Amino acid sequence: MNWRRILSSLTLHTALVVLCGLTLFPLLWMVSVSLMPADAAARWPPPLWPAHPTLAHYRLLFERLDVVRYAWNSALIAGSITLLSLLINSMAGYAFAKLRFAGRERLFGWLLAAMVIPSQAAMLPLFLILKSLGLVNTLGGVIVPGLASIFGIFLIRQHALTLPDSLLDAARIDGAGEFRIYWSLVLPLCRPVLVTLAMFTFMGSWNDFMWPLIILTSDERYTLPVALANLMGEHVQDVELMMAGAGLTVLPVVVLFLLLQRHYIEGLVLGSVKE
Amino acid sequence: MTRGVPVNPALAFIAPALILIGVFFFLPVLGALLLSFTDFDIYALGRLDRLRFVGLENYRRLLADPRFWTALKNTVHFVAVGGPLSVLVSLGAALLVNHRQVRYPGLFRTLLFLPVVTTLAAVAVVWRYLYHPRHGFLNYALGLLGFGPIDWLGDPDWAMPAIILMAVWKNFGFNMVVFIAGLQSIPRRLYEAAEIDGADGFSQFRYITLPMLGPTFLFVTIITLIGYFQLFAEPYLMTQGGPAESTLSVALLMFQEGFRWWNLGYAAAVAFVLFLIILAGAWLQSRWRGRRP
User: Fold this and answer.
1) Are A235 and B143 in contact (CB under 8 A)?
2) B115 reaches A (C-beta below 8 A)
3) Which fold has domain B66-291?
4) Any bridge partners for residue A45, and if so which?
5) In which domain, by residue range, is A65 found?
6) Choosing among B7, B45, B119, B171, which should be mutated to test the A contact, i.e. which has the most A CBs within 10 A?
7) Number of domains into which chain A is organized
8) What is the ipTM of this complex?
9) Smallest Cβ distance to B119: which of A20, A100, A253?
């Protein structure tokens, strides 16, 4: 065996393990502290493990602090945006890839260029538009602006471009209508990219903070991240309780990511390495 | 019966998306420009006839507003330090994970990516306690290394570095994955040829890896630039812009002016200046990279 090779392999893996340890530490510490009894974390030296683990803070969140309501709001918003935007973006993405219409490439180019516009630039007038539609402080006010996304259209188009034209033409010759072709031929063939986009959209809406903070004004409509920020104001001293709240907030997205991480990372690569 | 020009079915496919993007994105962006020329405030919110056109008055006020310059300085600080730092950490992590000798690269990639998918509002809460001056873990770890405690979020000199550190932790995994994809698209034979010519690891990195990563670098820097200029949730959740406005960002200023004090006209001017800065930054980046071979 080559000693230099073993040594370099050892260095490499040590560096990776240390990096992973540092990266995961805040999340593991969050879980650990959330299981400590009240005030147990505010000690010196700060404890790493709960000496007497307890679920008291989770119980408090569920029974007294309405966490189920916020989780339900978050799930309803993220779920609706995901389902509806998947339909809307996949229709447009497929059309930009495979259907012919005047100005198609130019229009698509404009949409791509508009991706550098920060969403914050739109927020003040968007608030006024939604106010005039009566959507301020409703879940709809969070959902509606998220229903179509340029990135989603782009991702679907990249995948739809790889579908063979001959297949679509064969379906046309058999007399299938355009919507039928999209629904029963294109969508099943796009399943991998649809799963990816669904994950991106769900996690993006679940994690979104600024827009829900602006448009939702009363406590019972808050999403989990907004409710957590609000809770922080009243319970800033209750470290263990706040860690339990943070843990519950990240739990669904972390689990979803770990279950489907291959789709997620492949989609990210497809979306970033364009052309 | 309908006669005349048949409607292209493709329009029915793109119409829902285009209408939604038009009404809820392009229209508001245009609206922000118009709004920034008015004195739209809390009174106009109730009665629109109170609205007055004020020309460039909001922009004049903006340039004379010390809070705007503080916010701009802080945002540029965050972008100029946090951006390159995050790209460097991403590249370093990508080189490690992608190394030929690494076992289970997929596992390491997944673990290092995990902070990216977490909820910012939640991890900001976690980091607030990690940064706690008296019983935070970071000061404890520093103490073990022989450093005195730092009042991370309470000291105007340390608050922005603290926010940068957290943002790099939260974001580096994203660019790492993009870099790994870029690294894997470099043809293996380039390295084999270099090895035959006797090039060492560093020259291979300098003369093959870095130049071949050019397009990836461009993508990563533009995405990072656009994202980092929009700094909002980190200071909102961790410092509320303080202490002594040392973490007040342009987006946070826009939020406070627009949605706390309801100076929508003035806030729109702030938002529009932010937009122009991001546009100029992205344009400069792509030109600068584009000119290099």
Assistant:
1) no
2) yes
3) MetI-like fold (1.10.3720)
4) none
5) 61-271
6) B119
7) 2
8) 0.91
9) A253
